[in-house]
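Action item from last meeting closed. Structure (290 res):
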């Protein structure tokens, strides 16, 4: 009995320690972002709990044209890109899940091929260039519109839907499109919420493709602007976009960076609780009764 309590105590202690170590960087970013600039300079950049809280960094960032513009680009990517990706993934997965589709096997092999073999960066860039999408926001959406892995996962989900539902809908006069939008999609809300969250996080965190395809600073997504803030705050030279966040006011670059990180991550953190309830729901709950 005592050995069991000792094990529980050690287990709780280790997990608590790991949790504190994991949460400390988030806490430090949050605290520094709200620290008064004068106090931050006085304490030489190390603040565990500020004596004076300040919103100056947030007020400056949120009123800066470059940051607002980059946030708008990222918001467009996360909303429009997620909706288009869900539509393409769901329709393709639904088609592959129906055995009556004549070209089902060749399509599945094509999707599987994209998972096993990647053409690489150069062919991707040439494709985007030949489509005249360089410096176009759509270059951050169309090349990554769907994922073979997500298609197969959603196909497995559609495979679990009883064919009796579709047969009953056909008897009522629905065609395949009507069945998909009126029967399949309403039953797929938990899966759509999960995959939508994955797509939204991916689009919101777009960085590498933006580095490759976007040269115009006015079309930078938020992550590119943040990276430039991190780089240019430690150098003497200031570039377009990021310089606007640091030169016009006498604010420490570190507090601006931390505030920018908080503002960039907050939307995704708020989306998780809103969609969490859909993850645990029974997919077929109440759809078929025997």
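Sequence:
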């Amino acid at each position: 009995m005592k050995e069991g309590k000792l094990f529980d105590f050690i287990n709780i202690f280790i997990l608590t320690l790991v949790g504190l170590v994991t949460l400390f960087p988030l806490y430090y970013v949050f605290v520094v972002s709200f620290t008064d600039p004068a106090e931050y300079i006085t304490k030489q950049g190390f603040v565990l709990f500020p004596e004076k809280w300040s919103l100056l960094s947030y007020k400056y960032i949120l009123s800066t044209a470059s940051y607002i513009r980059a946030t708008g680009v990222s918001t467009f990517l996360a909303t429009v890109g997620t909706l288009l990706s869900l539509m393409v993934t769901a329709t393709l997965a639904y088609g592959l899940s129906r055995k009556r589709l004549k070209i089902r096997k060749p399509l599945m092999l094509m999707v599987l091929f994209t998972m096993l073999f990647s053409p690489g960066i150069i062919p991707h860039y040439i494709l985007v260039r030949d489509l005249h999408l360089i410096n176009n926001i759509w270059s951050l959406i169309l090349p990554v519109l769907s994922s073979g892995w997500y298609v197969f996962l959603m196909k497995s989900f559609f495979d679990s839907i009883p064919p009796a539902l579709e047969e009953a809908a056909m008897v009522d006069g629905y065609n395949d499109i009507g069945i998909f939008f009126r029967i399949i999609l309403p039953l797929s809300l938990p899966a759509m919420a999960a995959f939508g969250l994955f797509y939204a996080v991916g689009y919101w965190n777009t960085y590498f493709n933006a580095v490759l395809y976007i040269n115009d600073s006015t079309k930078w997504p938020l992550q590119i602007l943040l990276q430039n803030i991190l780089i240019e705050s430690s150098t003497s030279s200031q570039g377009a976009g990021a310089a606007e966040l640091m030169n016009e006011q006498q604010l420490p670059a570190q507090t601006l960076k931390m505030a920018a990180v908080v503002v960039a991550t907050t939307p995704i953190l708020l989306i998780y609780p809103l969609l969490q309830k859909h993850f645990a729901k029974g997919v077929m709950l109440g759809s078929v009764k025997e």
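Note appended to the action item: The domain at 62-279 is CATH 1.10.3720.10 (MetI-like fold).
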